[in-house]
Amino acid sequence: MFDRARKIFRDLVSNASGNAALVVAISMPAIIGGGGLAVDTAQWFLWKRELQVAVDQAAIAGAWARTSSATISTYQTRAIQEYNANIQTVADFDSTPTVTLGNHGSGLNNAVTVEASASKALPFSSFLTGRSVTVKVSAKAATSAGTNYSGCIVALHPSMQGAFTLGGNASGSATCGVVALSTHATAAMVKNGSSTAQLGMLVAGGGIDSEFSSNGTMHPNSGGLTNPLGNIGQPNPSPSPAQTYSCPAVTAASTTTTATKRVSTVTTYQYHTGNNSNQALASANAGTNTTTYSPATAGSSNAGTAISNVEVPSGSVNGSTSTTSYTYVRQVSTSPKKYEIKKVVTTTTLSDVTTTTTPASDGIARPEPGTYGTINVTCETHFQPGIYVVDSIDFGQNHVVTGTDVMFVIKTSNGMHINSTSNVTLSGITKETLVNTYGYTNAVADTLASLVFHDKDSTEQIKLNGNSTVVLNGILYMPKREIWFNGTTAVSGVCMMVVANNVTITGATDFNNFCIPAGANILDAGGAESVVTLVS
Fold first, then answer.
1. pLDDT given for residue 122 in this prediction
2. Distances in whole angstroms, Cα of residue 424 to Cα of each of 81, 246, 415, 463, 474
3. DSSP conformation letters of 124-193
4. What separation in angstroms does the CA of 479 have from each of 142, 155, 194, 376, 461?
5. Which of 213, 264, 275, 466 has a Cα at 20 to 30 A from 429?
6. Distance between CA 143 and CA 126 in Å, rounded?
């Protein structure tokens, strides 16, 4: 029996019919499983790729938001917005991304990390595992600050050779820096003298004369430079009443008494005897030798009119005073001799007696803030604190001109002149006056604080030279002018910053006077933007 069984088995093994079907039957689960796994894996890869792109873009967007003070607090919102904009396939089953702030390298709070996931059950993998599959991704983007430049002197011409020119033997130190926006390829800044002045950073959009190497640190061909005051609109202060300028005459002090004055009169006629008219008039004054006469002349009265602000003698008081006068009229009888005498009683009544003292005038003009046409300084002038909006102003010749906490807004082209013998001492407006007097917001007041001149349209050159004495403590904003500082000018004892079309320094100018005025901010001239890098 066993032999027979062995024979049947050998016959079965040696029979090749139906082998293919058997192999296929045995392999089918593996074939089906492999195909299902391939389909699921392709889906997982698609999910991950889409999620990774979304979190990458979200991290970059969040990091860029951190580079600006205006958006620094909205980095999470920006990251999620960018994430949602890049999600399509997994939009129905992804998680809400998490956005966190962290550090990268030596920076603090300079990196944004975004994490997200997507979970979904796929036909094959869920059949095998009994659960959905989760794909997780993350991305991290970090910021690094670009180089930002600032200075006390900024020349705005976009392409001029020598937009900033240093000549002569100027000395001192203005380590707050000089910036020229000019992109002139070789010489946006030109040095043509032997000055040893220390200027800190020398920054230009184009080339810088190599001679400046002894005057500071050179940064040629710098991009992103801008006008630091370019966003300031022309100030339009309120209140700004219409005003006129004049020089008062020199006068001594005086005291004037005025009152409301009424003068009334009562006229009567009386008769006196005597040898002649003179005796009769004397009798009238003495009240003697009176007589009668018929018909007597009729008398009259006048109540008078009250007149205000009549000048009266010093020491006058409220009340009434009366005076009586007698006048010979005619002889009315010969036997006996009688004479007619007119009697007038005058009563003066004073009320509202006022004494006014007018101080001496020293001949000094003291203009008040407001809106002016033309100001031509023709005497010593002390400008009072506030904003002066003027069509034009000429600071005159050899006249002392002062002003503290002031700003001059020039409305017309070539509307401001400092002359060869001008004597000018001015300090820029304070933030407190801008806020408290004119109602500017703190943000606007910060940008305007310490501004002395806002002269945006004038194009003529200003030369501070010759015998002029100029003390300007604040910011000079003259974006279309050339300002020329000659060393013979006495510009001293102040902190001044200049924004002009081009700036020329020559002679023995002292750079110690170029510094940041009290209450002002350094002139921010821009520079390279911040950089955002995807680090993981």
1. 67
2. 57, 18, 17, 14, 13
3. HHHHHHSS-EEEEEEEEEEEEPPPEEEESEEE--SS-TTSEEE-TT-BSB-TT-EEE----TTTSEEE-S
4. 38, 8, 28, 23, 11
5. 466
6. 42
